[in-house]
Every structure is written in C-alpha cells, then in structure tokens.
C-alpha cells in the first residue's frame, strides 16, 4: 500500500484495518478500528484532514479529499466519515461530513460542506450539492439529491449489517495474505 507523508503528517491506522495495496493514503488521514480501504482508493489529506470512523468501508475507485483553509472559509472543509458507513464503488467525497450507519451508493458525489445525518441511504449516482443537509432516516436520490422516502426498519438494520459484512470480508483478505 502507498502511505505517504505530506508536510510531516502521515496517515494513521488503528488496529485491524485493511488497506489494499493499490490504494494511496496521503497526509492527515486517520482510520479507526476495522476500517477497510479497497482497490484504487485515493485519500488525500493534504490541505485539511480526513477522519474515517470504525467499521467503515471505502470501496474501489473512490476519491476522498478536502478543501483548504482560506479567508472566506477559515476552517476549510475536512472530510469526516462516521462509523459503520459503506461507501460504494467510484464515489467522490469532498470536504463533507457523514454521520453513522450510512450507505453511499455507487458513483455518488458529496460536495464541500454537505452534512449527512445518521441512518441514511444515498442512491447510486446521486449528487449532494455543497452545504446541503440530508436528514436522518431517509433515502435520497437524484441530481441534485432529493428526499425520496423514509427508510424501512429493514433498511435501517441493513446499514449496520453492510458494515459487518465488510469486516468479515476484510478479515478474510488479511488472513489470506499471511
């Protein structure tokens, strides 16, 4: 795996993380316990920080990035991802905040300053514009993202199960590489 420093900041990995050898983590990237980063993910915490919560999985081809501090935006936009989040293939998460137990569908884009509350499904290909808040307990889809419907209890339960499925898979990958 490519773990690179930027201005003396090096990515940090908690216990039991899996980072695919083809992925690149640069700078101030913090991965909590049981995080899995799959093939061809680029996580660049250079001009701000990236924080990835426990049991979260970031799937193939996803780009994780941040926005710099400026006069107009004194804190910039870090990327903060909560626990038990499943980020589908080829997503772009840029300077946004995601709560816990979220599924981000394949190809979704979430932009600077957007906030996604806990227990949310984001449909494949959805664009979440800058500074938009997605409220807890709903499916969102479209360009721009619109609230489609409340989540069913079974869908809310699946959010946690998806994260657990990826813990099992990353453990199989770790065991297979020994």
Automatic annotation (TrEMBL):
Keyword NADP: no
Species, as recorded: Paraglaciecola arctica BSs20135
One Gene Ontology MF term: transferase activity
One Pfam family cited in the UniProt record for this chain: Hexapep_2
Protein name: Bacterial transferase hexapeptide domain protein
SUPFAM superfamilies recorded: Trimeric LpxA-like enzymes
Segments traversing the membrane: none
Keywords from the UniProt entry: Transferase
């Amino acid at each position: 795996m490519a773990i690179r420093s930027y201005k003396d900041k090096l990515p940090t990995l908690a216990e039991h993380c899996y980072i695919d050898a083809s992925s690149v983590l640069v700078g101030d990237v913090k991965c909590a316990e049981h995080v899995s980063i799959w093939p061809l993910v680029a996580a660049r915490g250079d001009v701000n920080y990236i924080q990835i919560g426990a049991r979260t999985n970031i799937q193939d081809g996803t780009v994780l990035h941040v926005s710099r501090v400026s006069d107009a935006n004194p804190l910039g936009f870090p990327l903060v991802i909560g626990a038990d989040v499943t980020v589908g293939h080829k997503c772009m998460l840029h300077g946004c905040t995601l709560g816990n137990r979220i599924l981000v569908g394949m190809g979704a884009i979430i932009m600077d300053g957007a906030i996604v509350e806990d227990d949310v499904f984001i449909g494949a290909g959805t664009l979440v514009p800058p500074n938009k808040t997605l409220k807890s307990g709903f499916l969102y889809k479209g360009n721009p993202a619109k609230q489609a419907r409340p989540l069913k209890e079974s869908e809310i339960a699946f959010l946690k199960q998806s994260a657990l499925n990826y813990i099992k898979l990353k453990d199989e990958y770790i065991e297979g590489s020994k």
